Amino acid sequence: MKDIIRHNFVFIAGIIATAVIIIGGVYLFGNNGSTKPNGKQISNDILVPKGSNITSGIVNGKYLPADSSAQLTLVEFGDYQCPACGAYSPLTKQLITEFSGKINYVFRGFSFIGPESLKSAEAADCASDQNKFWEYHDYLYTHQNGENKGTFADVNLKSFANILGMDSKTFDKCLDSGKYKNQVDNSTNDGKLAGVNSTPSFFINGVKMENIPGSYDEFKKLIQNAMNKSPIVQGTPTTAYHGHFDIKVYLNDTRVNLGLAKYQSKEPKELDPYIHLHDGNGNLVHLHKTETTLNQFFNSLKMNFTENCFILDGGKKSCNSESSSLKMYVNGVANTQYQNYVPQDLDRILISFGPVNDKNLTTQINSVTDLSCIYSLRCPERGKPPSENCVGGVGTDCTD
C-alpha cells in the first residue's frame, strides 16, 4: 500500500461500472447512467495514456491483448521493488485469469523507492518492444530481494531478458539508451496527479480504491459487483481492525526517539486506544480504527504537529522560517496534509524539520523502517511478527 509499502491494504470505497470503448488506442470511460460513485473519477488521459501496457486476461498461461468489449478497466500503479506490490501480484493474476475477456488490466509504474525502481520499470518497457512486457513484469516481482541492493542492477535486468528468450542485443541497446526513461518518469507523475501516495494503488473505471482489499475474495466481490453495475459500499472496519504504519521524525537531522517509555502505551492505560506505540518499538504505530489522523497520534504523546510547526512534549518548537521548513513524506512521496493525514496500513511516514533544501532527506526517507508489512502479515516470506501485547480499548480487536 509500499510505500508504498507503501502501500495500503484494507478495504474499498464505493465503485460503479461504466462502459469502455477504445478511441485512438486510448481507453475512455462512458457514464452508464447509474449512480455516480463516491470519490473523484480520474481522467483516462492520466490513467491510461496511449501506449499503456494492457491485457484483458490470461488463458492457458498466455496474456491476452486489450479487449474493447471488456466490461471494466482496472489500473494498478506499482513499484517493482515494493514488497506489497509483489505480494499482490499473484492476486491480480488470479483475478484477470478468472475474469479473462471481461477486464482490461493496466499496469502503470510508480517508481519511487530508488534507482533500481526506475531501471526495472525501464527494463519492463524495453521488454514490451519484444511483446514480453507481462512475462518480464511477472519475473521482476517473483525475483524481488531487497531494495536498491543490486537485485535489479542493469546486468541482472539484462540477464532476465535473456532468460525469457528475448533478443539480448536489442534489449540491451534499449536499456542502455534510456529509451523509456521519460515514459517511466511520466508514469510516476501521472500517478501523483491521480492521487497515488502508496503502492499498490488501484483504480476501477477511473475511481481510486482508497483502501485496497485484504483478500482475493474481497477483490473478486468488488470486481463482480462493478460488472453487475451495482455500486459497492465498502464496509469500514471500526471493530476488529489492526493496521500498522512505520514512522520516523527528524528535527534538524536528530531523530526523535519514540521508543522511550513515556511514549509507549500499556494496557489498561493506553495513551490513545486507537493509535499508539507499544512494546518499546518507536518505529511502528498500531492502528485500531480507520480515519484516525496523525494529529490524534501526536496529541496522545503531548506533542503538536501542524504544517508550520512541530512541538515536542517538552515544549521545544521547530517552526518554519526563511531557511528551515517542516516536510512530510508518505511512502517516499511529499505530502502536504500534515496533521490531517489519515495513516493507512503499511504506510511509511517521515516527518522532517531542517534546511529548506535538506541534503539529508533521501537518507532520512530510506531510514524509515518497513516493519508494518510483517506485522500486518502482508509479506510472510519475511517471517512472522513477534508476539505482541495487544493494547486497545472498546471498539478495537484488543478485547480479550
From TrEMBL:
Ranges for domain Thioredoxin: 45-228
InterPro entries: Thioredoxin-like_fold (IPR012336), Thioredoxin-like_sf (IPR036249), Thioredoxin_domain (IPR013766)
Keywords from the named record: Disulfide bond, Isomerase, Membrane, Oxidoreductase, Redox-active center, Signal, Transmembrane, Transmembrane helix
Any single Pfam family the record assigns to this protein: Thioredoxin_4
Keyword Iron-sulfur set for record: no
Gene3D superfamilies per record: Glutaredoxin
GO molecular function, one term: oxidoreductase activity
The keyword Oxidoreductase belongs to this UniProt entry's keyword annotation: yes
Family: Belongs to the thioredoxin family. DsbA subfamily.
This protein's name: Protein-disulfide isomerase
Organism: Candidatus Woesebacteria bacterium GW2011_GWB1_39_10
